[in-house]
Amino acid sequence: MSTKNIAPETQMLGYGYKPELSEGSVKCPIFQTSTFVFKSAEEGKAFFEMAHGKPGHEGKEMGLIYSRINNPDMEILEERLKLWDGGDAAAVFSSGMSAIATSLLTYLRPGDLLLYSNPIYGGTHKFIHHVLTSFGIEILGFRAGQEKEEIEKILTESGLQDKLKMIYVETPANPTNDLIDIEMCAAIARDYSTPGKQVMVAVDNTYMGPLWQHPLNHGADIVLYSATKYIGGHSDVIAGAAVGNKLVIKAIKKMRTVLGTMTDPNTCWLLMRSLETLKIRMEQAARNAEQVASFLLHHPKVEKVYYLGYTADQNPFQLGIFQKQYLSNGAMLSFDVIGGEKESFIFLNNLKHIKLAVSLGGTESLAEHPATMTHADVPFEEKESYKITGKMVRLSIGIENATDIINDIEQALEKVPLKKKPNILLDQVV
Ligand SMILES: *Cc1c(COP(=O)(O)O)cnc(C)c1O
After folding, report:
1. CATH dotted code for 3-33+71-275
2. Where are the domains of the chain?
3. Are 372 and 387 contacting, i.e. CB atoms less than 8 angstroms apart?
4. High-pLDDT (> 90) share of the chain, %
5. Which atom of ligand 1 is nearest to the CA of 361?
6. How, if at all, do strands 200-204 and 222-226 pair?
7. Is the CB of 121 under 6 A from ligand 1?
8. pLDDT for 48-90, tens place per residue?
9. Rounded distance, CA 55 to CA 49, Å?
10. CATH fold of 278-428, please?
11. pLDDT 10s digits, 125-168
12. For residue 214, how many other CB atoms are within 10 A of its CB?
């Protein structure tokens, strides 16, 4: 049966798994084993030759060797995961950070330049600024909202444009929901690629993926995930993933085998289970988010709501990106309480149902304070310039009854003292 015309949500129930290889078990068992028995020494030799890419085994499927290299749970999970993004291969990792670190270390070498978008996930910011630079990799940031000409000007002014090796973007940007045009990044990558050096485009699709944004269709080479978030979806695993074409994923897997950043069989099994309900979970969360956003929009104690559904009104210049790149308004939103850190904290401390925790994309709604939590390590001036200020609260909307979520937000906002909308001139003086 061709897999092309079957929807991913249908494929999640069985794709890539053969019951006859597992005593007829309807579900893929957990292959909780570190190593696999070879039928003969010759077979073991052949598998190792294939693992090391030696010629003579073209078209043959590699067998199971050792769970750092391969494992049935990991392989079947990867087969399913690639379907959402329309990639032809995927690799899963022990965390989103290990997916990001392993993929970047596969392609970047001392002297190469990494161009990356801002704002960006705190862990990635740290990896780029403190780890990659310590290996002699050059880094250069641009901001969500900047146009192609502005970004190319930054590149030219740096004098490092010929060293450009990778463009790394996170869109929508966390926590402000600013958008970046992936096609524009792919066009920049083409402009700076040479016959001997392909400039790669990597997109962290954690916020919207794998349902609502498909970066490969817009020219990205690598799609990265914290599978801890929507893919896992129950706030009970840490995992990551990379999706792309066969050659790209093969290179990344080679690095993964050496670094040992793969996922264990039990986590792979949990993620397969999560994938079966991915679509209905994400769609319910998005429906709830729409109601929460509209409640917040008109609330007298709320200054601004950062939600993709309001792109047309708040960010008309980003509407074009939204329309071509996104299939939903998503279920992540932030808002500014009128006031500052004090008022945000009163709100957070008075939530009863919504948990005060970082992370996102789980079945339960979570609230956090980006400026002092997820983005604590980003320098203050940088944070202010991205509008990540004391008054901002980030919400990850879950799959609960929307009225229960809204009632909780309403009662917590009641505890926040009512202040007048800030006077912009006064704000600048303080
Ligand atoms: C959480 C997150 C990561 C890191 O993933 P872990 O699974 O925590 O390692 C990377 N990028 C984004 C956008 C995230 O939200």
Report:
1. 3.40.640.10
2. 3-33+71-275, 278-428
3. no
4. 86
5. 15
6. parallel
7. yes
8. 999 888 898 888 888 999 999 999 999 999 999 999 999 999 9
9. 8
10. Aspartate Aminotransferase, domain 1 (3.90.1150)
11. 999 999 999 999 999 999 988 899 999 999 999 999 999 999 99
12. 23
Are the C-beta atoms of 382 and 333 separated by less than 8 Å?
Answer: no
Ligand 1 touching residue 238 (CB < 6 A): yes
Q: For residue 23, is it left (φ>0), alpha (ψ between -120 and 50) or beta?
A: left
125 lines ligand 1 (CB under 6 A): no
- What tokens appear for 415 in the block? 């505890």
Q: Which atom of ligand 1 is nearest to the CA of 99?
A: 9
Using alpha carbons, list the distances in angstroms from residue 393 to 304, 326, 348: 11, 23, 8
Verify whether ligand 1 is closer than 6 Å to residue 358 (CB atom).
no
The strand pair at 164-170 and 113-118 is best described as parallel
Provide the token pair at 315.
């960010």
Q: Residue 248 in 3-state DSSP?
A: helix
Instruction: Establish whether residue 240 lines the binding site of ligand 1, counting it when its CB lies within 6 angstroms of any ligand atom.
Output: yes
Query: pTM for the whole thing?
Result: 0.94
Among 93, 97, 223, 377, the mutation site with the greatest number of ligand 1 atoms within 8 A of its Cβ is 97
Contacts of 256 (CB under 8 A, 6+ apart): 91, 93, 102, 262
Q: Which value, to the nearest 10 degrees, does the dihedral of the CA atoms of residues 216, 218, 222, 227 take?
A: -70
Encoded amino acid at 195, one letter: P
What's the pLDDT at 3? 60
Residue 415: φ, ψ to 5°: -75, -15
DSSP string, 130-161: IIIGGGT-EEEEEETT--HHHHHHHHHHHT-G
Interatomic CA distance for residues 48 and 354, integer angstroms? 50
Indicate the top mutation candidate among 121, 207, 267, 366 to test ligand 1's pocket, ranked by most ligand atoms within 8 A of CB: 121
